[in-house]
């Protein structure tokens, strides 16, 4: 056991989780006779070795930052929002649709409009789960996961049956959006060797600042954190738990929706039929967990994830390693993050005596069902 | 050798170091066979650390433990159990839906092959119960029996496991005066039968009544061990706190003013939807402390939650400062002039993971000067905290220390500081001194009396009769959601109150 202060532990645990993940990945590669050193060096070379790679890495990180913030806000309020894929998908389709419908509107109106509509779409999807939770105490894990399916197939229906065929190339793909509604910036694309990097990263950085400001500086953030930390004391102090449950889910969904908007208006420039829930939703969840729901943590974790994803493509093309192995490495890292409690046992924190028990959260409050999820997330930032 | 066996437990030079913080610093304790040893100390003095070491939950940093003259290493609770050490916890650990017998044998079932042999167990348990005078219906469900009976179940559980060294952690906190008397009888019976008992308590009169010797612990050190017969209450209190404590409060004359709270024919349901407050009416005036006595679970929680807006009022009214506040929102009621010191300070009173400063701002964070246009002013919150820390003498290293790192007494001081700072006309103090030591109790009582002098109306709900008797101007006794009587402290006795609390006299009293 190594003695460290809680602060250092907070940093060490995710770092060790990452290293352990890479080691497991290396062992797996060795088992299948691949050279891990060559694999990892080609991974970093393709993700960070040239301007195009860096651009793609940044591009890949932007939506993850949004979805991670979405997850973080909900978890601060005590919820486990795993409906991020659906919320992002709703944001993606609606923002693309708006731009396709009004291709000639001036950019200064069209782009903000598309962004706002996508944000609202994400918020509404999450809001359904929030409302059900506040009103009936429904478990948000179940509702959000089901909403993922509802959104997945509703989007397919909307695009194939409701959207005007003029806006589509075929039943599975829409036309590309006009430049008036695109987040692409020519000089940025040129600077990063023609990569798909776009203004999404700037929006993501703004979102991080907003997230920080919201949580640290506003009474709204204070209430959300309070309700998440101790719903009983919050109610006692006159905070409305119902209001905060719905509010935090709306905010969470807004950010997830924005993730989808950036993916649509930035990366793909169109919408195409999805067969499974969006990756950026699930990865955002992992990013938030790995980053301990802190601003810097989310930023760094999002970059790490995009290095893995973009570099993974390089591993495949340069070192000839199947993408499945890359997926295993990513999964291994998430696995080690998820069991960071075990990694945390390696350390003995120099904690002061702490004999006081946390309030029990199993009990139900008198008038509502705000007992929070039993899954503890990001507690004291050490996931 | 003879001398060694007389001391059934000997803890020598026990040190427990939590990263530089010495919770126990060279404590010596001896427990003799068949005696009742009281363990007295303030919260955070190290009592529970010492007992946790003895019951195998913590390992000492240094020091030696001898049980029956043999050096032992109590490295886990199983070792303690095998040595015959058993603990009766303050919060009972019973399965409500199981019967008394099932609870007692839980984990130590006697079996015939794979089949539970309840008959044999019942025989053994009845024999034990008879021997120690613990009369109980073994087939009753724990949910249906009284708290005092549940405590007997806990005691039998420990005895059934073969313990002959019993540790009681604040055992009388939940009992009525009559039950306390019976409990002490049981304790003495156990000691007579050769059991050795350690009694953790902060109630001096119980020590006087029950214990043979008392060991006083202060700030992790043993101040001394005394024969109870040879030491006075005042002296014990002084030893425990380290300074002179004023045990008797002087209550200044305050003329009651206008009516602040009027509760009329209040009906409130509990969580299960069963009526818990059944037509309660009372009023409190400015400059008056109304004590609400009663046994835990007679509608106190529901009453307080109904007045403060945390629980729906089924019928009846709550009038605060001449305004009807029945079923209003919590914050509206707070703003109408109600301060609330909740019974469960860690669940309702504080957000333990938050810094002290944020906790001190919990009622006022949303309005100037602490925030403006929904933007929080952290500087103002910090200054507000510093002011309260100074004014109410909260012992903390800084305003940013987490509430969970404060001692129990200072957690309560923080809540009291926050609530009194609201300058509300009505103060609801629910069990304001629960689990606190003499020094902190003295402090809180003085604060409440000062508020009374300042013309506040105070509703004091407490399960401690002494507290009710000392502070109240009037006492309403609550039994089964109704007032079983209203008395004046100077005209009643603990005995009369105890009877009213059990509902024995439901027709009010002669004092009206």
UniProtKB/TrEMBL annotation, chain A:
Residues 356-365 have a biased composition (Basic and acidic residues). One of its GO terms (cellular component) is plasma membrane. It is a multi-pass membrane protein. This is ABC transporter permease. Pfam families: BPD_transp_2 (PF02653). Keywords: Cell membrane, Membrane, Transmembrane, Transmembrane helix. The keyword tRNA-binding does not apply. It comes from the Bacteria. The lineage of its organism: Bacteria, Bacillati, Bacillota, Bacilli, Lactobacillales. Residues 356-383 are annotated as: Disordered. The chain crosses the membrane at residues 12-34, 108-129, 141-159, 197-215, 245-265, 285-308, 320-347. Its main location: membrane. GO terms for molecular function: transmembrane transporter activity. InterPro entries: ABC_transp_permease (IPR001851). It is found in: Cell membrane.
UniProtKB/TrEMBL annotation, chain B:
Belongs to the ABC transporter superfamily. It is a peripheral membrane protein. One of its GO terms (cellular component) is plasma membrane. InterPro entries: AAA+_ATPase, ABC_carbohydrate_import_ATPase, ABC_transporter-like_ATP-bd, ABC_transporter-like_CS, P-loop_NTPase. Keywords: ATP-binding, Cell membrane, Membrane, Nucleotide-binding, Repeat, Translocase, Transport. Residues 9-244, 261-505 form the ABC transporter domain. Pfam families: ABC_tran (PF00005). It comes from Lactobacillus acetotolerans. One of its GO terms (molecular function) is ATP hydrolysis activity. This is ABC transporter ATP-binding component. It is found in: Cell membrane.
